[in-house]
Amino acid sequence: MNAQIASTRTGSGQPVAGRERIEDIDVIRGFALFGVLMMNLAFSLRVHHAAPWENHPPWLPDHIVLRAESVLLANKAMTLFSTLFGVGLAIFLERASASRGDSAAWRLLVRRLLALLAFGVAHAILIWNGDILVPYAVTGLLALPLMRCRTSVLAALIGLGYVLPPLVLLWPPAGDFWNAADPVPFSETMRIYTGPSYLRIVQLRAHEMVWSWTHHYTVYLPRCLGNMLIGVLLWRSGIFRADLSERMRRMLRWVATGGIAIGAGYALYRVILFDVFHAPTPTRGTPLRLFLQVVTVMPFALGYGAILLLLLRGRFRPWLLHLAPLGRMAFTNYLTESIFFTAVFYGYGLNLLGKVGYAAAALMGIIFFAAQGILSAIWLRHFRFGPFEWAWRTMTYGAWQPFRKRPSDGMNFSPVAVKFRDPS
């Protein structure tokens, strides 16, 4: 692999030094986290079940926000997020191998992913079943044996992961299984989620989680694996180096313009086709639709990443660095978003499910995300990691990790800070 920052073999059995984190990745992860939050609010938390907005004229805020999110964020933010997870796996393996040796690094990474799996199961059942931690942990475990493969092998596996699911759905039994409706009626689901019983909601969450795992992950996991392997290749390429060559910058400009043109073009085509001309909406799991998502969403997501990398090497860097605390504490921020918004929408909390539309939900998300940014920056002035990041690291290394900062650490997130930090 192409090492970005030299690691020192300490033999101390401690995690990699904090100053080796690449802050640009934190910025991109913070951006992706915002997109994931917006889409979760719109769909995974069932805001789209707010009936009144559907009868509004198309120029009113709910429709405008929905179409903007569909074009700009739907699937793109999640794709970018899972790709960055692959980057993180590659960084962790490289750093841990340099300081501890290969065998110890593999064991640490397996333990890290198993810990994430435990967090994900608890999150999916106790808090919210729109969880991404379980599929990320499972896909990460599948990716581990492949991470040291040659680039040509990884490229072939990426192509297979993208093309295989649409091909499988061409087989009628597989397509019928994928598109099967959840046997719990919609009215019953809404009654439970708007009811006061937390235990009943937990039972329904567990059912829906198992349903998603058995019906949807068979198609989602290969694509997620492809995203993570792309992240591994991106880390090898040196794209995150601070001193990018002119050739690399030119390539980033091509990816930014071409990727977004392809992705936005297809997304706008769908909006015009289905909203303007009112064409029949295709079945969610049709092979052609899945294939078009693959060939348009990934370029769009990579285009976002390329734009951010270019802007981070220019005058906009001080502004974009405000996203770095959010990205560095992405695990904590993701979980706190789940805790907060399930309490806002579900019956055991404020019970707003079905009562607000897309525009109101998006405004709530923007305000909450901004508050998270401020709190994350303040938190990281005093602590090395977010609370859930710290717990995850402690489970990974099997020993209590230092939590509070020492004056000698000298790490901050002021707009002019340009520092490399810990990869995990």
UniProtKB/TrEMBL annotation:
Residues 235-398 form the DUF418 domain. The chain crosses the membrane at residues 71-93, 132-147, 154-174, 220-239, 251-269, 289-311, 331-350, 356-380. Pfam families: DUF418 (PF04235). It comes from the Bacteria. InterPro entries: Bact_Transport_Assoc, DUF418. Keywords: Membrane, Transmembrane, Transmembrane helix. This is DUF418 domain-containing protein. The lineage of its organism: Bacteria, Pseudomonadati, Myxococcota, Myxococcia, Myxococcales.
